[in-house]
Design goal:
By secondary structure, the protein is α+β, with helices and mostly antiparallel strands. Helix content is about 30%, strand content about 30%. The strands form three sheets. A seven-stranded antiparallel sheet has the order 2-1-4-5-6-7-8. A hairpin with a 2-residue loop joins strand 7 and strand 8. Helix 8 packs antiparallel against helix 9 and helix 9 runs parallel beside helix 10.
């Protein structure tokens, strides 16, 4: 598989139900665990960064119920949360972007620490970086640094500099999906945006922007999920747009045309997932760097799940894909790489995330069990050694663990 990995490592501290987490990511990653284990909170930490850059930090926090709902609640009463993302860009740049947000009474917040470092693999001695503490730029590689503010992310201002623009673009062009089928089924307004919205409410506009070859690929996958589907297009009704499907009906010679409001939930959800996976452009500045999808198997027939897995693998050649799931059927393939699995468990309200334990890896590699069979028998466990290492390390972001 071509390495499309954008975010190579994620470290979190005190984010929602996650006290401590330190995991590696690949081109295709499955977050596997029971309902309520906290899979969505991990994905939401990445979405938080994208939201804060695309809108504002204040909006991202308010959208999650306020700082008290974002920062983990526990007997220790933590007063901050932190996110550190290590990345690799196709242009040959690597580095990390990290932030720590501290609560300020009553219900306020400030960016206690924010930092970014970018290295060019072709010139290791060349590094662009900044570090901001409570609204003051304390260290930077640029001669004239933009102003900072304690309630805003500095990367937004730094995106005006060529050294940091690729980082801003990459993090702001991540897409996260939990589809609202009523919005996909309904008439939609034309939208000039080139990234599918998280609820699918601009799916018609994104579908019309796809190159013909990509649209054909999507239709071929959709026909495997829903065998009678032949084509999907967008029809205009006044100022609105709606999806239109060509579907074979009985012994009729020609496929009939059906609008989205006559299609099943499974068909619409499958189309949304496929468009989310294959959207974007080969242009590095326009590509969707990461796609996160919540439980893509919902509303799909079990027989279509293998097709979904093929689609996920295919898309991961182009963009990084992260999926949350608790479906054994999705993980039944004997050739599924166990290293792509992150096991998620909840213990007394605390989410634990790590690679699969050694015993599970061994039986999967020896083809004794599939990952799906381990999940079905509740034998897919996070590696205790990895959990212990993350807890002991406390996920320091340079001197983050000096903060109070």
């Amino acid at each position: 598989m071509k390495d499309s990995t954008f975010i190579t490592r994620v470290t979190l501290k005190n984010y929602k139900s996650i006290a401590a987490c330190d995991v590696q990511l690949g081109p295709l990653t499955f977050l596997v665990g029971r309902n309520g284990s906290g899979k969505s909170n991990f994905l939401d930490a990445l979405r938080f960064v994208a939201n804060a850059l695309n809108t504002s930090l204040g909006h991202a926090i308010r959208d999650r119920g306020g700082i008290n709902d974002v920062c983990r609640r526990s007997r220790g009463h933590p007063n901050h949360f932190s996110i550190r993302l290590e990345f690799a860009l196709p242009e040959g740049f690597t580095g990390h972007y990290a932030l720590q947000i501290r609560k300020r009474p009553p219900g306020g917040y400030e960016v206690q620490i924010e930092e970014c470092s970018v290295q060019n693999k072709l010139c290791p001695t060349s590094e662009a970086y900044f570090r901001v503490e409570s609204g003051t730029v304390t260290d930077t590689s640029v001669e004239v640094a933009p102003a900072a503010a304690p309630d805003r992310l500095y990367l937004v201002n730094a995106s005006g500099l060529p050294e940091f623009r690729p980082v801003y673009d990459a993090f702001s062009r991540m897409g996260f999906y939990n589809f609202n089928l009523d919005k996909i089924r309904d008439f939609q307004d034309p939208d000039p945006a080139d990234i599918l919205m998280g609820d699918g409410s601009n799916l018609t506009s994104i579908l019309t922007q796809l190159p013909p070859t990509v649209k054909t690929d999507i239709e071929e996958y959709l026909a495997l999920v829903v065998p009678d589907i032949r084509e999907v297009d967008v029809r205009a009704f006044g100022s609105k747009q709606i999806l239109a499907f060509r579907q074979k009906v009985g012994a009729d010679r020609y496929p009939g045309r059906f609008l989205a409001n006559n299609m099943s939930d499974g068909t619409l959800r499958a189309l949304g997932i496929l468009v989310a996976l294959f959207q974007g452009d080969d242009d590095p500045q326009k590509r969707v760097t990461l796609v996160g999808i919540e439980e893509p198997e919902i509303a799909l027939h079990p027989g279509a799940v293998a097709v979904l897995l093929d689609g996920l693998r295919d898309a991961a050649h182009r963009t990084q894909v992260i999926v949350t799931t608790h479906s054994p059927e999705l993980l039944e393939d004997k050739h599924l790489d166990v290293e792509s699995i992150l096991a998620v468990e909840a213990d007394d309200g605390n989410t634990m995330i790590a690679s699969v334990d050694d015993a599970s890896k061994s039986v999967v590699r020896d083809r004794l069990f599939t990952i799906g069979e381990l999940l079905r028998s509740n034998q897919l466990q996070p590696d205790p050694a990895a959990l212990s290492a993350a807890k002991e390390k406390q996920l320091s972001l340079l001197d983050f663990d000096k903060s109070k």
